[in-house]
């Protein structure tokens, strides 16, 4: 009896108590099927990109795949070259900075070295002058 009523409602376009639930389930079933189809197609494309499962592809599909791969390789190379150029520029800046620091340290070393030589030249003379003053001061008393 319930089946007959459900069939009548269905034929007449009347919704039953479970009709919205049934529509919801049907919607999600179709949604799952579509997503599964998309996943399968994407996985197949990925396999083709790495050279797998290409035996069944025709000339047109192979040429399209080749174009896609060339475009991808060009993008990868471009990105790689951009990163390499950035690294080279950074390293050149680092080199400049290190060379400037090296020049500054060399200058400081020369200043210290020259100062050390001056003190060695003047130190004995200064000691003699102090000794002479001490002697002079002692003899004047």
Gist of the model:
One of its GO terms (cellular component) is nucleus. The protein is an all-alpha fold and about 140 residues long.
Structure description:
It is a single chain. With 141 residues, the protein is mainly α. The chain has one domain (2-108). 88% of the residues lie in helices and 0% in strands. The protein starts with a helix and ends with a helix. 0% of the residues are buried.
**Number of domain units:** 1
Question: What's the count of strands?
Answer: 0
What best-fitting shape do the alpha-carbon axes yield? elongated
Q: Element order, helices and strands?
A: HHH
| Largest sheet geometry | none
Secondary structure tally, helices = 3
User: How confident overall, as mean pLDDT?
Assistant: 86
Beta-strand percentage?
under 5%
Structural class label: mainly alpha
Seen as an oligomer or otherwise, the chain set is single chain
How helical, in percent, are the residues?
over 70%
Present the secondary structure layout:
Elements: H1 2-12, H2 19-49, H3 59-140
Could you name the key traits of this structure?
mainly alpha
